[in-house]
Amino acid sequence: MGSARVFIDGEAGTTGLQIRERLVARRDIDLISLDDAQRKDAGARRDALHAADVAILCLPDDAAREAAALAEGSGTKLIDASTAHRTDDNWVYGFAEFRSGQRDAIVGATRISNPGCYPTGAIAILAPLVGAGLLPVEYPVTINAVSGYTGGGKALIARYESTGTSGYKPDPFWQYGLTLNHKHVPEIARWSGLGQAPIFQPSVANYAQGMLVSVPLALWAIQGGPSAASLHEILLAQYEGARFVRVAPLGEAEGMKELDPQALNGTNMLEIFVFADEKTGRAVITARLDNLGKGASGAAVQNMNLLLGMPEDAGIEAAAAA
Hints:
Blueprint: E1 4-9, H1 14-23, E2 29-32, H2 42-51, E3 54-57, H3 61-70, E4 77-80, E5 92-93, H4 102-107, E6 111-113, H5 117-131, E7 142-148, H6 153-161, E8 173-175, H7 185-192, E9 199-205, E10 211-218, H8 228-238, E11 245-247, H9 250-254, E12 270-277, E13 282-289, H10 293-307
Parallel strand pairs: 1-2, 1-3, 3-4, 4-6, 5-6, 7-9, 11-12
Antiparallel strand pairs: 7-10, 8-9, 10-13, 12-13
């Protein structure tokens, strides 16, 4: 089999650059690139989209929809890293591990929606618990999350990394999405299997990358009063043998005094921790991941590998050793 032809539409953006970095040295991938003058030329983009075996769309939502339209009539498989198609029934959700059969669905697909970074953490926690019936569909879910500033793309990166002489200093921490209608909410609700929109409170801190996504649970308010061990058992069973998802042992979580959001940076790993106070029936489940890795470019490369019939960890092997 010869090299697969891959086009990154939007390769100059944060996610596109990260994907290119993961692919450029691979001998099984032949990257199709456009020069600066061609990147906004619809004809040049159409030609590149039609020439590729797989195209990865690293674009704003409207531009991603345009790219999908330009690719019509070709045999090119698409992976969309925008939010444009994440709840579209005609696109397969690109999170291979979160439920049984999803990896096979990705392998057989032609249109993949790459998950968002925050949703990856939230869905990894919630979908197995809702699917197993331990967490009621109507449970009032709250999600608290913090990300490094690279999650906001070039504008936010510039805000934090600018070396201008204005004397401006970025805030060390701030919340956003205060209308409670963040664009990730429909995605989280859909793929977690929730009957109601969760309360999702994202925030940004003054570090580059890495994120923590936490779901607090009042176990005493759930019928049957599930234990931390039962939560952990379901999560452990769901991700048993997963290459890029690790559920920490309960004993490990019990012994932790802090959780570093940057610990998985540069990897495609996602870790899940169950923290609990059994006496009062309270728990917090936290997912840790790199918002530019499993939360974006790493996941896109993983999905590309699956689409092309290549080893799932090709180009991201080192991530599994973290």
